[in-house]
Amino acid sequence: MKKRTVTVALALSLAVLVGGAAIAAMKRIPIHDIKVGFIYIGPVGDGGYTYMHDQGRTYMHEHNPDLPKSVIVENVPEGPDAARVTETLVRRGANVIFGNSFGYMDFMLDVANRYPEVYFMHCSGYKTAPNMGTYFGRMYQPRYLSGMVAGAMTKSNVLGYVAAQPIPEVIRGINAFTLGARSVNPKVTVKVIWLFSWFDPGKEKEAAKALIDAGADVIGMHADSGAAPQACEEAGAYVIGYNNDMSQFAPTKHLTAPIWNWGAVYDYTVKQVSEGVWQPDQIWWGLKENMVGLAPFNEAVPKSLIETVESRKKAIIAGEWDVFWGPIWDQKGELKVKDNEKMTDGEMLGMDWFVEGVEASIPK
């Protein structure tokens, strides 16, 4: 769904050049004439990924009261159906369309090329056109901060991680989580179970249970439902949620969660279109832009730990430090990022290795 490959760095450069060449062709649309369509990979009621996108849609309307009611299409699988749904939205009058899954990319691009007067925004992809941009967030930043909480709260020094797909986006999150945990507790190790799925509540719950059985007393996650937090609540293990505040699924065991504010992009985009200044940018915003953040802390989290986390958060926002600044070693003991050096965006977007402390392999 949100897959990124090692071709991203080159694709980003090419897309920016191509996109910047013809933006003059896009016309301003008054806010009261903008008709927005959303294509969702899952159900709004998933309690996670799609739910937060829809919260972002609500945020967009709250901040643009003259914007007409938007249209959503849920449960659209990655593949040809994405093209069909996108085309249908255009024919129904949508002139700004958002697609929230990586696998929509080529299909949206095809439709965008056929409707140059319509604005398209694709979540997590790397291909652009004069009328199609991309958007995503630096989720690795709050992943690191949540890892600090997990590393300080564990008693067994074993953390678990319910992981969706073995792709750079997820690998980057696991690494950030591990680096954060080991920054406060160098003894921590992280075990990973792959789901090979983005949304499968049954698998998510069983994976969490298996990790707890393997000794993990704090579980992190990159999955779209609240099933893993439910399993942790039932088993008495702490959990770091994802996408939104998942304390509703684990009232006593939810420590915090890296969360999305998709509304920041949705609001920004319709304003850019209405002002006639939209460009096919490749948005990758972080804590500074309020695209990502942390859910409230469980009352069990010590105040001193919260202060430490907030201090590190301020450093990231100020640009004084970021997660993948060296020195960083991989799980084989090889120095991957030297002291006083930092990974480029391209390197982060194509990440295909685990940091020291992760006890798992990356499937081919």
From TrEMBL:
It holds the Pfam family Bmp. The keyword Disulfide bond does not apply. GO terms for cellular component: plasma membrane. Keywords: Signal. It comes from the Bacteria. Residues 1-24 form the signal peptide. CDD domains: PBP1_BMP-like (cd19963). Residues 35-316 form the ABC transporter substrate-binding protein PnrA-like domain. This is Nucleoside-binding protein. It comes from Dethiosulfovibrio salsuginis.
